[in-house]
Amino acid sequence: MQPKISPPYRTVIILQDLEFGGTQRYAIHLLKHLNRELFKLELWVLRGGENMLPMAESSGVPVKYLSRDSWVTPRALWNFFWKLRDEKPDVLYTMTAVPNIWGRVFAAITTNSIVIASWRGRQEQQFESLLWRLTDRLICNANALKTHVIRRHRVDPKKVAVAPNGVDVNFFTPDSSCRDPFPTVIFVGRMVKEKDPFTLIEAFSLLRKLVPDARLILIGQGYLNSKLRQKVAVSDLEEHIELIPGANDIRPFLRRGWLFILPSVSEGFPQVIIEAMSCGLPVVATSVGGIPEIIENGVSGLLVAPRSPESLAQSMAKLLLDDETRNLMGRRAREIAIERFSLEHVVKITEEIVLAAISERLLNHPY
Length: 367
Fold this sequence. Notes:
CATH architecture of the largest domain: 3-Layer(aba) Sandwich
Structural class: alpha/beta
Mean pLDDT: 94
Strand order of the largest sheet: 3-2-1-4-5-6-7
Order of helices and strands: EHEHEHEHEHEHEEHEHEHEHEEHHH
Radius of gyration: 21 Å
Number of domains: 2
CATH superfamily of the largest domain: Glycogen Phosphorylase B
CATH class of the largest domain: Alpha Beta
CATH topology of the largest domain: Rossmann fold
Strand content: 15-25%
């Protein structure tokens, strides 16, 4: 039996890796901005991958790798199990698929920790139909995902909360002096099938028939990188497309852009969209997942159907060729980022969710 817990609550955030990604960026925001009088924080990482390690370390929170392997090995899970058993944090916040699975299983076996799990995309591999019962709160980053997880996995609605992603609006700021002289479209994301970069390449080919001097900058890493580079290399687009590995600071690229594009076929609540909006970029994106909760169609950007290169091309051309509309949407995008997605607002929501879960546990199942 553990002693009754009190603030600052010993809180561990567990991630699969620190490679470039929206979930990793969100986790680091929490490390930097959660109230230290309420939460004593640590970050645990299951496997190697250090792209975002400097950002994590800049939070001043201890970062502990449970392995440096290139994938989540049995050794990493073994180390996770024993570390959780030995240290017994008050709160365990699991993020990314593997930690969401094994973190909840191990916590049920080894600790009396309050378990906060995350649902930041349609991760059907999380076995949510079974594991939600081992969860004090399941935090979704979009109302669409909350509805999906309740209907699809029959999760108790009282256990599901929504905390949208947040953006540091004083860090992600516009700077028109950096804008490229050519009409430039920016994509930032993992090069994986969910982001559908090949449809974007096809759409860009169509766009150049409408806007011949258009440029496309793609920033990100993923298992489709090599195939994407091959496709660009054998096309007539190579001189007009810039492929850049992921970067810790994406502001210089966002500030070069005239608009931001995200052609995903599946999404939760993309962090990068609100970062682009905070930099004053209008957004062309697919109407999937939580994206319609971020983009006001015709106000801060344009929404299109997924897997439609023609629609993507037409929407990009509309904004690239119309300075007045593009600039108006960019200003409104920045205003919405400040009003609805500032870090202060989002971190406060997260704190309230976690504290409610702690209070409920102490009331119903005292230590």
